[in-house]
Amino acid sequence: MIVLDTLDAAAVRRWSRIAVELLAAHRSEIDALNVFPVPDSDTGTNMLLTLRAAADALAAEEPADAAAALATMSDGAALGAVGNSGFIVSQILRGLASAAGESGECDGDVVAAGLDAGATFARAAVVSPVDGTILTVARAAADQARGATLGEVVTAAVAAADEALQRTTMQLVDLAEAGVVDAGGRGLVVLLDALARTVTGAAAVLTPVFTPARRHEATRESGSPEFGFEVQYLLDAPESAVDTLRVALAELGDSVAVVAAGTGTWKVHVHVNDAGAAIEAGVEAGRPHQIAVVRFADQIDAADRAASAVVAVAPGAGLAHLFEAEGVYVVDSGPDADGDGAIGPSTEEVVAAIHATGARELVLLPNASRVTGVAEAAAAHVRAQGVRVSVVPTRSPVQGLAAIAVHDATRRFDDDVVAMAEAAAATRFAELTIAQAEGLTAVGICEPGDVLGLIDGEVVEIGRGMLAVAFNLVDRLLGVGAELMTILVGADAPNRAGALIEAHVRERAPFTDVSVYDGGQPDHPVIIGVE
Fold first, then answer.
1. Which residues in the chain come in under a pLDDT of 50?
2. Which superfamily does CATH assign the domain made up of 9-200 to?
């Protein structure tokens, strides 16, 4: 395993991609944690959108070094910042960019200095900072970011952030009453974990968080319910006018944030009742543009109308966690009725999971060809009871994950089903399995114990070593083009299989995004998906 001594432009770009992937995986979990200052469901989504803007900005440019890459990432996050958490994250990135720009390189000392500057910038950007939030977690990470190497610095920062996150429960009454940690702080821990993975090649060991069984339905990320509008805009103005603007906005409402988004440009965010006055304050300070005004009541109405859910079959604890993190109801798999070792739930188990959602409209993801019949039978059963169910015929868990990535509960049900089905169909999948008996395949005769490599359900490789067959499957998939590859490591996979397959992909296709997850599935040692 290669541990980086310094960050270069490629590493920063890789961090941005991993951050987006991890925040996407944890989005629903983070959304569900929101209880301060008001219950909401936006923080995970807002942080994901902000980091996607940062990653998109990096993808559109070719920065020469880490300092330039971090500056691009910071500016992209600031310009695309959504919600208070997005604004704060953009300032943490600004601190890293500032430290790297002053040094000319990005080793452990520079990252430590950057986290310190970022925590300071973030607190300064918020008019009324509160302890027990993402600001507290950022400061703890910065204070403990120490070590002789870059790897030690980022590892210490993640560990300190995780510890500080657990303490947030007792720092705010709202969090203590709900028994949860701060949502924004959790998002920052995920972002720092992505940095640690980029530098060390290994995921940080994080404390599991309690997630409320029922997600909150309010649709603003923070602020008092007395204010009815969220106003955001870009502002071209001199720095001297910014402090006056902050004071003016604080008198109009709450959740005020004004952050740098490039030289002479600022991103402004506030919750108010008089949206016009908030915009006029910007006019007095400079030139506002890209103005966005959202009426919270409209969002709440949309949330109330959303009565859909998704149920997925997920073999393995790791896969179950991936789906549950996206708000999906999971059906645990077990030995099927035939007793042949294949896994699959019963019709009754799927029906019970559907009823548990309480939804009037529901999407079912079987995630295996052999489960499709069970899913269809369950769907027919509950349709007779007035529940609208659509089965998206996913043949592999990676197709199910692709479908979930485009799921939008606020979209028309039929449109959402079409989008999910298209995403699943566009995802090719490969699997490893072990032959249990002699048989004839499309590529020859297999013997018991042979490793079979399948693509889209058809045997294309027969071998004796799992990794060798996995590498061959990867090469075949890369041969037809792959922008994104997802690797699910099963319970019976060889030691370090995920890391070795990922290294093989990066060597053969350095521009392909790779995500490796411990799926824990018992039926296939390795599952690979490509989009």
1. 36-40, 213-222, 300-306, 335-342
2. DhaL domain (1.25.40.340)
